[in-house]
Specification:
Blueprint lengths: L26 H67 L5
C-alpha cells in the first residue's frame, strides 16, 4: 500500500486530459455547416417526394372520375346498340325489312 501513491506508480493518474481539440482552423464550424446543408437537402427531398405523391394521387382521382364517365357512356352506347339490334331483328322477322 505504501507504493500505491508513489511517484512511479501507474495505478493512479490525476492528470487532466483534454478530449476536444482546441484549434482546428474552422474545421468544426465547416463540419457543422455541412451537416446543416445536408439536413436542409434531405428535408427538401422529403418535401418534394410528398408533393409528388399528392400530385399523383390527385391525378389518379381526377382520372378515375373521367374513366367512370367514359365507362358509363360506353355502357349507355352498348345498351342503345343492343336495343337497335333487337328492333332490327324484330323488323326482319316480321318481314318489314330485308
Amino acid at each position: 500500500m505504501s507504493g500505491l501513491f508513489g511517484a512511479g506508480s501507474l495505478a493512479w493518474s490525476f492528470v487532466p486530459q483534454l478530449a476536444a481539440p482546441i484549434f482546428e482552423g474552422g474545421a468544426l464550424r465547416a463540419n457543422l455547416d455541412l451537416a446543416k446543408v445536408r439536413k436542409d437537402i434531405g428535408v427538401a427531398q422529403y418535401e418534394k417526394t410528398i408533393q409528388t405523391a399528392f400530385t399523383e394521387v390527385a391525378d389518379g382521382l381526377a382520372a378515375r372520375g373521367t374513366f367512370d364517365e367514359q365507362l358509363a357512356a360506353q355502357q349507355r352506347f352498348t345498351t342503345t346498340q343492343q336495343r337497335s339490334l333487337e328492333l332490327s331483328q324484330f323488323r326482319y322477322r316480321n318481314g318489314v325489312d330485308s
